[in-house]
Amino acid sequence: MSDWSAKNPYISKLNENWILNGEGSRKETRHIVFDLGDSGLEYKAGDALGVIPQCPPELVQGLLDACGFSGEEEVETHLGDCNIREALTNRYEIHRISKKWIGNLGDRIAPDSPNIEIRIVGRHRASTEDGELLMDWSGSGVEDDVPEGYVEIGSASDPAEDLWRSLMDDADAMEDYIWSRDYIDGLADFGHIGFTPQQFVDGMDRLKPRLYSIASSPDFEPGTVHLTVAIVRYHHHDRDRTGLCTGYLADRCDVDESEIGVFMSPTRSFVLPEDNSTDIIMVGPGTGIAPFRAFLQQRQVNASTGRNWLFFGDWTEEGEYLYRDEMEAWTDSGLINRHDLAWSRAGPDKVYVQHLMKQNGEEIWNWIDNGAYFYVCGDKNYMARDVHSTLIEICSEYGGMSGEEAKEFVETGLMKTEKRYLRDVY
Ligand SMILES: Cc1cc2nc3c(=O)[nH]c(=O)nc-3n(C[C@H](O)[C@H](O)[C@H](O)COP(=O)(O)OP(=O)(O)OC[C@H]3O[C@@H](n4cnc5c(N)ncnc54)[C@H](O)[C@@H]3O)c2cc1C
Ligand SMILES: NC(=O)c1ccc[n+]([C@@H]2O[C@H](COP(=O)([O-])OP(=O)(O)OC[C@H]3O[C@@H](n4cnc5c(N)ncnc54)[C@H](OP(=O)(O)O)[C@@H]3O)[C@@H](O)[C@H]2O)c1
Questions:
Q1: CA–CA distance, 103 with 109 (Å, rounded to integer)
Q2: Ligand 2 neighbourhood includes 353 CB (under 6 angstroms)
Q3: Helix, strand, coil % over all residues of the chain, rounded to 5
Q4: Domain extents for the chain?
Q5: Which ligand is located closest to the Cα atom of residue 317?
Q6: Domain spanning 280-425 has what CATH number?
Q7: What is the pLDDT of residues 389-406, one digit of tens each?
Q8: Domain made up of 10-53+209-265: CATH architecture
Q9: Is the dihedral of CA 249, 250, 252, 254 positive or negative?
Q10: Is there an atom of ligand 2 within 6 Å of 232 CB?
């Protein structure tokens, strides 16, 4: 075993990075293959891969320009000292403004003192010969009290102070504000108060790795790790934006070239049954298909005799039937014994995986009663919750239990005692 970790990631390259969706799809779901090279990294079907993203260089440059920094200024960070360009690229999440950073503005944007703090920001002095970028100065705020040649920017009637107060006083307004804004937006609203490089990074969220359920079995795809990644793209305040890691993987990670930090995140619970003759039911719409591709590869390698039932769903068959060729080949070969597909945007009514579970309730109950494992992967907030309640309804209806008994059977019996209802939801 190797000792690569989030703090000491293996620097991997990509073998593949392509869009799984059909032409015309409005989704961008990518198949991304990492090369494990001589890392010694090992994994099993069901594990996740940690990926360490980097912030977009144009966003880093935009922030440096807006603040009048060269990028070479030293700052203190949770990982030690470094220059601010490195800090904004690899140590902080600069694509989403943090509450703490906004809170930190308090001392300077709404000072308790009746004196008005005036700050002259670097942009306004970018042409000074001595290269000094910032100057703090407090005065009464009356016109004559401003040194000659300087521009007064902050004042007690500053609308930014009102905005700041409204965010600090109203949690919903704060959530709304940070939901769609990055630090470029933050500087547009508050940048005039001026920042030293250290003040600018203090309070930003630390950059965190993202986890992805592995979509391959190490025995079927030796030396590589496959992922199924839904790219997050949105448009706010007249700019296109992406999720940090998915934007990085989609837009800035080139096959055979880019160096990407990765590490394994092993699971103890989301595993195949030890007994290869045990049946499994897998519910994995959208990117939830990922670990089930891994499970199916592994069941093929193991020549498992247990039956495999796959529920998959997404918007349309044409656009979002992920891994169609492989799934159809496995259905033809008999590896997939039951295959139910829910297309939510193909007709007038939403068809979701749990609707198909309901239609097949009796058979699902028979499989479970016979010892089958039940797996769910994908969206935690809606899909997994609805699949959970549908499973309870099925157990109640076909297992002859009251609603309460079925809930107990599923949540205590299957989940906790027998550990054969397993979820990988996010
Ligand atoms: C165990 C585990 C397994 C996972 N497996 C997978 C997997 O197999 N495939 C996969 O694709 N993902 C998977 N994920 C999710 C993945 O880790 C990331 O969370 C996801 O890729 C988004 O990361 P990001 O850095 O691109 O987005 P971030 O920069 O973290 O941004 C995502 C945020 O953007 C927000 N957002 C979305 N749309 C908008 C909008 N219109 N306006 C403003 N904000 C918006 C979302 O609410 C979310 O909070 C998994 C997560 C876990 C914990
Ligand atoms: N917690 C998270 O942050 C999280 C989790 C999962 C996905 N996402 C984001 O969502 C985007 C796409 O993800 P994805 O491709 O994996 O697909 P997805 O959004 O999970 O959608 C897959 C399928 O599930 C359907 N669905 C929606 N609500 C459902 C419900 N209550 N029960 C059952 N099925 C339901 C969708 O239908 P409709 O869309 O037609 O309703 C779609 O057909 C990505 O941007 C991803 O990052 C975020």
A1: 10
A2: yes
A3: 40, 25, 40
A4: 10-53+209-265, 57-201, 280-425
A5: 2
A6: 3.40.50.80
A7: 999 999 999 999 999 999
A8: Beta Barrel (2.40)
A9: positive
A10: yes
